[in-house]
Amino acid sequence: MPKNRLRLVGALTAALVAVTAPSAQGLAEHRPHKPQTLADLAQRHGRYFGSATDNPELVDEPYKKILGKEFDQITPGNGMKWYATEPEQGVFDFSQGDEIVDLARAHHQKVRGHTLVWHSQLPDWLTSREWTAPELRKVLKKHIQTEVRHYRGKVFAWDVVNEAFNEDGTYRETVFYNTLGPGYIADALRWAHEADPRVKLYLNDYNIESVGPKSDAYYKLAKQLRAQGVPLHGIGLQAHLALQYGYPTTLEDNLRRFDRLGLDTALTEVDIRMYVPADEEKLATQAQWYADLTKACLAVRRCVGITIWDYTDKYSWIPAFFDGEGAALPWDEELRPKPAYYAIRKALS
Ligand code: XIL
């Protein structure tokens, strides 16, 4: 083709494209493509977006479908707790945790281990008798190391000690604290590290989203432990929020001070409950809070990800534990996304 004809064709083509080419947005709408998930959106920020799940729910196929698709991180809600994993002294049962790890693997999701040392959901054999310090030390070390070894390479993080402090920042008087003293926390971390030197080790608690006496206690302890070379890698903020208590406006500052200690942070058990019935206004506030906490995590470099404490109101723990409250999660009881879901997407976009 002669040069000027070529140029003409070029110009015509450009004009045609200008007239008919859909906008980038239009293109995205028309091209058959997989809609982006919360996980996809979070990954663009180098974060994960996860959900807790629990073994009894895994027979619910529509539930499982969303769980496998929308999230890139899973936490077992109960299956890795002491009562489930060591129901008799020295007899270990990892079947429930394994079921969830297998499901997560099938969907390329990573798993947070939850939890090794906690005053709640302990087996009867442990709570129904007295222990001397040397006895309990042995029991604790064996429990931690057997479980951490079992899940080595399968979980990327452990909530090693859960809920160690009271609201006023004093140590919670658990069987571990009362028998072993505050050093049980450092010991637990060291034992876990010995059993899996690569896994990230966290302390995890609720009501530590704001700067205040309880989060100060973690800050102080974390600083001490780091100075002593104890293997602590992160602080988990459960973030079980409730509309009636107000949004924790110092969350971002709080995350940042742990970041400055060189620690990872994670929002590990997020839900935002309200008195039921829900209404449009409450759901709008809830959506705003979900967006705000998502943005707070994105704003702090070492906030590694967000986990909601299951994703649907169908399986939320809230109604059974908080009288008259519920509707805490981004999907409703019929597995339909609520305003909170869209608000999270927007915050991640
Ligand atoms: C809850 C589970 O979701 C319930 O199914 C169970 O009956 C009680 O525990 N903080 C934690 C979680 O660290 O382990 C708790 O999970 C919720 C509060």
UniProtKB/TrEMBL annotation:
<keyword id="KW-0858">Xylan degradation</keyword>
<dbReference type="InterPro" id="IPR017853">
    <property type="entry name" value="GH"/>
</dbReference>
<feature type="domain" description="GH10">
    <location>
        <begin position="52"/>
        <end position="347"/>
    </location>
</feature>
<dbReference type="InterPro" id="IPR044846">
    <property type="entry name" value="GH10"/>
</dbReference>
<keyword id="KW-0732">Signal</keyword>
<feature type="signal peptide">
    <location>
        <begin position="1"/>
        <end position="23"/>
    </location>
</feature>
<protein>
    <recommendedName>
        <fullName>Beta-xylanase</fullName>
        <ecNumber>3.2.1.8</ecNumber>
    </recommendedName>
</protein>
<keyword id="KW-0119">Carbohydrate metabolism</keyword>
<keyword id="KW-0378">Hydrolase</keyword>
<keyword id="KW-0326">Glycosidase</keyword>
<keyword id="KW-0624">Polysaccharide degradation</keyword>
<dbReference type="Pfam" id="PF00331">
    <property type="entry name" value="Glyco_hydro_10"/>
</dbReference>
<dbReference type="InterPro" id="IPR001000">
    <property type="entry name" value="GH10_dom"/>
</dbReference>
<comment type="similarity">
    <text>Belongs to the glycosyl hydrolase 10 (cellulase F) family.</text>
</comment>
